[in-house]
Amino acid sequence: MKRACIAVLGVVLGGCGPSYGGQDVKTPDQLIDDQEQMAAQEEQEKKKRGTDDISYSAEETDAEKKRKFDRKQVDMELKRATRSAESCPGVVVEQEKTEKKEHPRGDTRVSVTFQEDGTVRQVSIPSPFDGTPLGECVVRAYKAVIVPPYTEGEQIVDVDVSLKDAKEETKGKGKKK
Question: Is this model's pTM higher than 0.85 or not?
Fold first, then answer.
């Protein structure tokens, strides 16, 4: 009998334990109300801090910056290509000796047209270099340029290139080799 009383007492005490009220599932309407309350609190906190959505919308996001034509990156890539193009007179000189032809030398301006995917669509080199082995070497140097993709349509960039023999450059600078 003692055991039965102890067992009944244990069940009664266990059933009368602490109550954890408010554990029922929220309805969709209650969830929406909670979200609206949190949004209203965040809005009040923004106003207290003095910041609002207008200041954030004026700033560019990283994705928007990536979509722009990156002038800094383009300039860096074109400088590399220019160094390569300016070495063309030294590369082409051997071919000219075998053909026994003289080809033009000097300074010129090359136009490079970029496509939105970041590749070069066209390279234009003016006369008297156009169609010569030297001109083709320069075109190949600039065709290899790749820049980050962008969304602003085709971009044309002009680049000054010095296409002189190494001997001419050292004479102009007063250096001896």
Answer: no
